[in-house]
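Example 3.
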Amino acid sequence: MSRRIQSDLIICRDCDTIYEYKHTKVRQPVHCTVCGHHLYEKKTRFIHRGFSFALTALILFIPANLFSLINLDKVGNNRNAVVFDGVIDFFRYGKVACGISLFLFCMIFPLIHSFTQAYVCFGLLYKVKLPGMVKALKIHQKVAYWTMIDVYILAFFVVLIKLGDIAHVKLMTGIFFVFAYLIASLAANYACDNVMLWRRLREFTYDE
Amino acid sequence: MSDDKTTFKRACDHGYLRCETCESVYKQDDCPDECDFCGSPIHQRKPENIARAWAFLIAAAVFVIPANIYPISIFEALGNKSPGTIMDSVIYFFDEGMYGIAIIIGTASILIPIAKLICLAYLIYTAQFGKRSRLRHRTILFRGVEKIGRWSMLDIFVVALLSSLVQLGSLAIIFPGAAATSFCMVVILTVFAAESFDARVMWDQGLKNEINGGKNAER
Ligand SMILES: [Zn+2]
Ligand SMILES: [Zn+2]
């Protein structure tokens, strides 16, 4: 139990203005009146939704990385592509920094991002005190910026159009899973407000 | 305008501190070194924020040059190598009449990294020397710079996809060129620069000057 934390106060990240935390209605975002920073927003059943979408994303992540995205066939040569092929190619041509970035940003971090969210939301939803929930949420928040599946999808379209006139490009099953994964993870992000998640986790840790 | 800005309660003036990770608020005289709840170190401001931001920014600026001079991908067909820089691929799409993609690639890989460097340099400079104009706009600019940074990885992913797809034996292959690593470094280093910069510093300096400036004007 920490009595030192002033749980009725909230301070703006960008301009250091103090606000009193007010219990707002759902879908009423609170902004900083000085700098306009989004302070917090209570969202409809956010733990429930956060858990469902994160779990969906987690499940979809497996087929998204197993099946190939597109198939390029030209002169009898077939080549499939999954995210991991790109990593291997970067390593093969000695671009280690790029290989590691791709591997982290498009495979490891998205996985950690969805997993930690599902983990924390599961604990809060079913009122189970799982070990390392605080640490999991910390990692979730750190990794959020570096999950770049959305950027990867855009790159994928650029490539699709670039290759479209050179070779015959066939869309494969993998792309649908990647899309579904992207939508689920975006929905998971949208469902939860980090400030509210921290607040709920703190109440859960201290009050019970 | 200056009147209502100064009436807002700022945490640093009223003796409150905030955990940057979990948003817990502490009283200054009763504040632990590490957050009771999440264990992250608590600082009044991010440590050495201006110096760190400059360091990362300058490092990123150095990498911009090789990233744009050297080829980012090399297309090899029947033994002939044709290297292409980032600019080449933008020009290629323009010539092909695919303006949409030309604009997307040009924005993500040339415009955004350079605009980010300039904006960050401007933000750090103005914070360091306590400029007090357009504080709100500068904060919005900072948030924009933070948000947009990750999209610059686009070109790296394009090269990754191309090189893993176009492997037609000895007929034609595409492989990443020397610029790829530099480009990657530019993106990562500018993100680090933005991350080590603390937006509150410009409000500290700006508001202090504003109050002093106001008093001087009254006299
Ligand atoms: Zn603010
Ligand atoms: Zn904390």
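The first strand of chain B starts at residue 16 and ends at 18. Residues 30 and 58 of chain B are 38 Å apart (CA to CA).
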